[in-house]
Amino acid sequence: MDFDTVKLHILDSSAHIILNRPDRRNAFNRGMIGDLTRAFRRLVDHSCRSIVLTGEGPAFSAGADLEYMHEIKVAGEEENLADAHRLSDLLELIYTHPKPVIARVNGPAVGGGVGLVAACDIAVAVRGAFFAFSEVRLGLVPAVIGPYVVRKIGESAARRYMLTGERFNAEEAQRIGLVHHVAVQGDLDQVVHGIATAVSLGGPEALAACKELIHRSGEEPLQDVSEWTTRLITRLREGEEGQEGMESFLEKRDPRWQTGR
Length: 261
What we know:
- The chain is of the alpha/beta class.
- The chain is globular and about 60 Å long.
- It has helices spanning about 30-40, 65-75, 75-95, 110-120, 145-165, 170-175, 190-200, 205-220, 220-240, 240-250, 255-260, and strands spanning about 5-10, 15-20, 50-55, 100-105, 110, 120-125, 130, 170, 180-185.
- It folds into two domains: about 5-200, 2-enoyl-CoA Hydratase, Chain A, domain 1 (Alpha-Beta Complex); about 205-260, Lyase 2-enoyl-coa Hydratase, Chain  A, domain 2.
- The chain has a six-stranded mixed β-sheet with strand order 1-2-3-4-6-9, sandwiched between helices. The chain has a three-stranded mixed β-sheet with strand order 5-7-8.
- Helices cover about 50% and strands about 15% of the residues.
């Protein structure tokens, strides 16, 4: 499958999706949202163990492209609603993807670009990157990305930066929980690779189930999710992967998903 605005390649056990509009600072348009959606869907059943999302060039993503913003400005209600749904569907796909998704934030992330980071499971930012929710300064709000951002950084930090539209640096992004690590430029790939390697040690089914566990535990009432968790661990214990994992531990050997056998 060919893409016009993103690149997709496999490196070791990770799939790398690269926003590929460096001349536009990897700003969104309809084509990029569609390409990202197709790329992530293509990897649902792929054998890769994790997905790394990053940008080509000096920026991660500058948010909405100017031409795209003009199209939105003159579009009618029906098209605007359909457009918002496309971005919403993409973010949900990333957030609920069975593969762990790692954001490699190689430069500035603004508006929807921050939303992409928030939808990922783990984020590493290069020192010198900055972030901003600039929507209020355009008379808009970060509506579609908002639920993912608030879940990631909390209501207090969201109020601080969504209401002001101010830029904040990578260290502040780490402090409020948007990113997990800040690395100097020369160490960025090494840190991301180390995380991807750690992820690859987990069982593929367990990783997908763990993502669902985290998602449901944060959203559903305790008494509702408790019954689901008991059934989840029972299913995993009895499943092929769980049996192999426990057997390998007792036999003091690596499980088959780590050795490839």
